[in-house]
Each structure stands twice: as C-alpha cells, then as structure tokens.
Amino acid sequence: MAKAYISEYDVMPILDGRVVPTGMEPAVAEQVVTFTTTTQSAAFNARTKFIRVHADAICSYEFGANPTATTSTPRMAASSTEFFGVVPGQKVAFVVNT
Asked: What is the pTM of this model?
C-alpha cells in the first residue's frame, strides 16, 4: 500500500528578517495516510494554514470538506514532496495513480 506523510504547519520560520519557505518545526500535527483506493486524511488542525506532503508512490490528490481523489485529479510523482496552503478543518484524499 502507498503512504502519504502529512505535516501540518501554522507559520513559516523567519531568519534575518526574511521568511524561510518551509514549515516551522515542530509541526502542529502529523498524519500518515495509507491508501490504494481513495482515502481521506483526518481533518486538519484548527491552527493549520499549510501542509507538507511526501508521497512514497505515484498518486493523485483532492482537497475539501469531503474530498474524493481520482486518477483525473492533480498528480504527485513517487518520492516527491509538495507544500500546499489549506483551510483548517478540511481534509485531503489520495488514490494510487500511474
């Protein structure tokens, strides 16, 4: 089964007065979503403003209150990492793709 590793963040770190484009550790919350067919994450924390997703397999994803990922929704390559701005309380769904 494929896995998506999600780190939830509320702020970006500041170094020498400049924003560093990554999440401030420790993360607000962490999740691992195991999937083959469309599977949703837990709802994002109330403080979460953006997330980091690392997928270990080729997959597609969809965001929303009750998302359903399909092979027609946006795609991530295997072993890739992406940052996304999100709405607190919403979820992300993943499905295996080719």
From this structure: 0.95
